[in-house]
TrEMBL record:
It comes from the Eukaryota. Residues 210-446 form the NPH3 domain. It comes from Medicago truncatula (Barrel medic). The keyword Calcium does not apply. It is a peripheral membrane protein. Keywords: Ubl conjugation pathway. Pfam families: BTB, NPH3. It is found in: Endomembrane system. GO terms for cellular component: endomembrane system. Its main location: membrane. Belongs to the NPH3 family. Residues 25-95 form the BTB domain. The lineage of its organism: Eukaryota, Viridiplantae, Streptophyta, Embryophyta, Tracheophyta. This is Phototropic-responsive NPH3 family protein. Pathway: Protein modification; protein ubiquitination.
Amino acid sequence: MAPPGKLSGFHLQGHHWFSDSGLPSDITVSIDGVNFHLHKFPLVSRCGKIARTYEDSKNTYEKNLTVVLEEFPGGPETFLIVAKFCYGFRVELTAKNVVLVHCAAEYLEMTDEYEEGNLLTKSESFFHKNILRNWKDCILALQSSEPILSRAENLNLVDKCLNALSMMACTDPSLFGWPMMMYGSFQSPGGSILWNGINTGARIRTSESEWWFEDISYLSVRLFESLIKTMRSRGMRPESLAGAIMYYSRKHLPGLGRWQGGQGGKTRTVASFSLTPASATVDQRVLLESIEKLLPQKKGKSFCRFLLGLLRVASILNVDQACKESLERRIGMQLELATLDSLLIPAYADSDALYNTDCIENIVHHFVLTESNLTAFSPSSLDPQASSSSESLRKVAKLIDSYIGEIASDVNLKPEKLRALAQALPESSRSLHDGLYRAIDIYFKV
């Protein structure tokens, strides 16, 4: 071999990589149609897998050994890093390549059994000391694991990233003296202004509980789902989980974002300047069904509107019936918080009617069932729970009467549909019937 000082690395010719050592190659490593013309000693001394192949080939009379590596983690780009390491060149591990390199080192069995401080040990040490302590790098590492997700999961790299992110998001970031370089020279993770590394307590104008929403929205559906489940197991507040899910949904379901007026206020982001967007080829139907399963049991005006938006998009995407029924049930549990415009869901199926009245009727039935369960053990009208239930019934009755009045102008609305909606609520829910009279009057005129 030429002296190390004369080595300048490797060069590419077409689909072939060559060492700059000047010595003829005696081993060819082939990965995805790209050939590396290298030398046995640097590889055999560090790679258990190639060492065994070399031992098995000693009885052959071929001068040049060819090794084909099937399903090599990271492909030719990652193997080039491995080759440089084997030849003694300095390799730079980063958040974007450390998962790929670690999986490649495990694939090639580059353990300390062959050489102390081998690539498997170095990549593992870098991962624990640098990646798991840094929010941005954890996100980048997770993104880079997508092409080899199953292998990274088997090596617990994904779980370690998810746990680290969950810990950082679940804890008040202002309590930690985390490295400033993670969040900019003058900010702590929670947005406090730093002076010479000291937290002044002064806040940048941002919602502290939402600082991580934008960053995790760059993850794929599968990784996002895993992260939310990990956060839930760590005790993340349902309000924060719901906020993150709503943010992710609005970003990746265009129909939902357009209907609900976009993303709202811009959230401060930490890592997105160096992240790549989640795949644009995401199956939106799969995404919506996954999102519905992640949703916490929560009530609120904005959350109710969000659920109705999901139901609207679900009708367009024709998601499975179980998903639709679950959304209808969730909405029914808080129907008194809904607004008229959010109930006006178009009929996207083969229907002459303008609006999907069936799903609204289902929602009302779920509401009535929920209210019946709440008051089943509160027969006294003086009971506060019964009083609250009566107020909810009156609100929903007024809302549904307004809804019927809005859809009554549809010439294709069948009379049985109108009647079913009017009768879906118990008689006790209406002290006055002016709303129904108005709706019926509009219907007859049309």
